[in-house]
């Protein structure tokens, strides 16, 4: 199969032993709307090669569990696990292998699945795999689309839709309605993906021409948007294409993934606030791998301290016990120990980082970006008069003591790490007497990023 085929290929991952009716309906519907379908049956109930009827069009295909396992094994006599969790693991690897091959051949245009907690965990673990790049449509119709779905999403671009009713192997008016809506979305995405691949094969499109510009990743938050907008405009004027990532946990993880996939000529990690949430229990953590990809891949990077003045939580009532509030009115509150707390809206509450926390944040940031032993190009830019729209003389919680603690910690750690590199190039620190959202700071950031790119290019062997 290849993208030269006239119809897009949609892969459905599911368990036909418990959800056959939904998958049969989906297969028939997608075929009627111009798609080929391959169904990967991840059932774990015996017999694994059950021949129960499942209707397919001439150009579609079905892989039963035993067939999947045998096709993934190099052994002529495949040993099939009998324990359920081991069987699920084996089926996951088999499904992943099958779909990775289809994608490598240029044949795969979308991956989709429907189900509850088990099927959602199983299918999204496949969709998140690095074999399937950002942009390949991935769709999960699930009963689990409530609360924190970050474990299902990871750093991928999976579209998650609530099923409303249970995906239980018996269609009803409610599940039929939501399933049809999901299928319309899946079909549309698959057709668009297929058309895009055909266009790329036949001619250089306007998108291709646009993407000839070197891309620069840049991290942002609402309180650093003004800075990012100014930096982005300056980069565009110099022939670069800025790509912004919102520092909400998933945004940071997505940026790290795309850095590892070699999308960017440089990284401007202006807004590193996700490390506050990682260290202090906030709700927007990007996990322990944040700030590691550019260093590992030796991508030139500008790193700053945007929004390190805040830890993000949900509603005011969701604050942890350590943030016990004094009585107060309006959006700005204080804890009993005097820490400022700002109610950004009904679902977002910000807690000011303390002097001690800023000391730790400074050490952590520098240690993360100095782990590469080869001396990757990295420069820390510190805006002395404010690190977010909340911070500084016009902010709601200007705290020079906390900022100075952050700066002192960064300076000390940079010095310590550079002294231990034994002559290798290390991290540089530049302190700038402007606010992070100022025009002056934006111009310096853009200039330094381009300088790093040019230095890296000059260092490449001719």
UniProtKB/TrEMBL annotation:
<feature type="domain" description="UPF0261">
    <location>
        <begin position="9"/>
        <end position="193"/>
    </location>
</feature>
<dbReference type="InterPro" id="IPR044122">
    <property type="entry name" value="UPF0261_N"/>
</dbReference>
<dbReference type="Pfam" id="PF06792">
    <property type="entry name" value="UPF0261"/>
</dbReference>
<feature type="domain" description="UPF0261">
    <location>
        <begin position="213"/>
        <end position="452"/>
    </location>
</feature>
<dbReference type="InterPro" id="IPR056778">
    <property type="entry name" value="UPF0261_C"/>
</dbReference>
<protein>
    <submittedName>
        <fullName>Uncharacterized protein</fullName>
    </submittedName>
</protein>
<dbReference type="Pfam" id="PF23189">
    <property type="entry name" value="UPF0261_C"/>
</dbReference>
<dbReference type="InterPro" id="IPR051353">
    <property type="entry name" value="Tobamovirus_resist_UPF0261"/>
</dbReference>
